[in-house]
Each structure stands twice: as C-alpha cells, then as structure tokens.
Write a structure and sequence with these properties.
- The chain is mainly α and about 210 residues long.
- The longest helix has 20 residues, at about 135-150.
- It is built from 14 helices and no strands.
- The relative contact order is 0.10.
C-alpha cells in the first residue's frame, strides 16, 4: 500500500482554498504566496506547490471551491427565477472575496464546479426555453459579465470606506468642469455600493432575454 504524507492530509485542496481565501480577505491579494500559505497550513512550501503547481493553479482551486457553493436549481423552476437565482448566488460569492477577483484578472473561469453548477445548467435552461445555442451563449455571457463587473467594481465588504473615498474624490472636482458630479454628490454615492443596482440590472437583462 502506498504511503501518504501527513502533510498532504492537512493540505487538502479544500483546506488550501479556504486558507488562501482567508489570507486574501484578511491581508489583501498582495499577501498571497505559497510560502505564506504553507506557514498558515503548517506544511512545507513544496507541499502546497505539489497540490497547485503554480499561482494560476492555486487561483483555479480557490475559484472552483467557491463555485461548489453555488446552488443546484430544482428541476421545473421557471427560467427567469432560476436564472436570477444562479447569477445572484455567483454575485454573492464574488463580492465576499474581492481580492480573488483582482488576482484572477482576465483569466478564464473554467473549473469543473463552475461548469457543472453554473455554465452547463444555465445554458441548458436557455436552450430549454427555445434559444438556439448561439443565442443561449450570448445571453449567458451578458449576465456573467454583468455579475463579474458588478462584483469587481468596488469592495462591497466595506461600503463606508468606498463611499468616503468617492466623496473625497468628487469634492476635489471643479464644479464648473463637472457640474453633475460636483453638484449631485450625495445623490450619486449610494448606488456605488447598493446591491440592488446589480439585482435590478440582472432582472432587466432577464426580461429582455426571455423568449
């Protein structure tokens, strides 16, 4: 029987992903490294690298760990309801970990859990209501990009800090050059961190796409 390293038992994919996400959430994306992660897990740098190979592999592990939390929409659910449920759940996971979004940048999100929990069922639901494959993918892409962009725009975990920084930036503007921004500052600030802005935008896309 092959021997298994005790370190590998501690550094499971789930443990690595949870620790990496916690590290990024607590200390920012710049804090993430194999060495720091290994210290947190109580294993060697090589053990973590053996699981992930490189930073890209570590980020894939983290994103697919989050994707595993996405709900399975029950069969028979109305298309609009199921679509809103899927993308709202994705938005909730992404806004909880803004540092991960920053680290991933433009890398594609193609992990097994994301494909199984979001992409495949969303496309299947689109086809089931009469869209052809090209239209089904275009509708999925619109909602995915809305969700990703809405989550990445600001750090939704600290709306007060976002509002304060934005207020300071707007206060420095010349009212003659920026009459709208400088003249309506207090009215313009709340939508920056209001989750309902995303939800209403998603519902608008759903209404427009529904066959």
């Amino acid at each position: 029987m092959p021997r298994t390293s005790p370190a590998l038992h501690r550094a499971t994919p789930e443990a690595i992903a949870e620790s990496a996400l916690a590290l990024v959430d607590e200390s920012g994306p710049q804090a993430l490294s194999f060495r720091t992660l290994a210290e947190r897990l109580g294993v060697s740098h090589a053990t973590v690298q053996r699981r992930c190979t490189d930073l890209a592999g570590l980020l894939d592990l983290c994103t697919d760990h989050l994707a595993a939390r996405l709900p399975e929409v029950p069969a028979g659910t109305d298309w609009a309801t199921g679509t809103e449920l899927r993308f709202t759940a994705l938005y909730r996971e992404l806004t909880a970990h803004p540092g991960l979004l920053l680290l991933r940048g433009s890398r594609p999100w193609l992990g097994r859990n994301l494909l199984a929990r979001l992409v495949e069922p969303a496309l299947a639901a689109n086809l089931a209501v009469g869209m052809d494959p090209t239209r089904a993918m275009a509708v999925y892409r619109q909602m995915y990009l809305l969700t990703l962009g809405s989550a990445a725009f600001v750090d939704h975990r600290d709306p007060a800090a976002v509002t304060a920084a934005s207020r300071a930036a707007l206060a420095a503007l010349d009212p003659e050059l920026f009459p709208v921004l400088a003249g309506h500052t207090e009215a313009l600030l709340p939508p920056l961190t209001d989750h309902e802005v995303f939800r209403e935008a998603l519902r608008t896309l759903i209404r427009a796409a529904r066959p």
